[in-house]
Amino acid sequence: MSHWVLLDWTDGTPKEVVAEVTWSEAASRLDQEVGESPGRRFSIDPVEQWFRYRDGDR
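Structure (tokenized):
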């Protein structure tokens, strides 16, 4: 099973919202976040990609 991370890119730097969840859990959380704060930018990425962003290895 793949794990995913929901990232908030609103200020141009990725910030973890929720990590190591299924795709559907990440999508559900995305719906919740967008509903609470429209206009923010998000992405759902594989956890491995988040580790590269976090460690500065874009």
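The beta strands are 4-8, 15-21, 42-46. The first strand starts at residue 4 and ends at 8.
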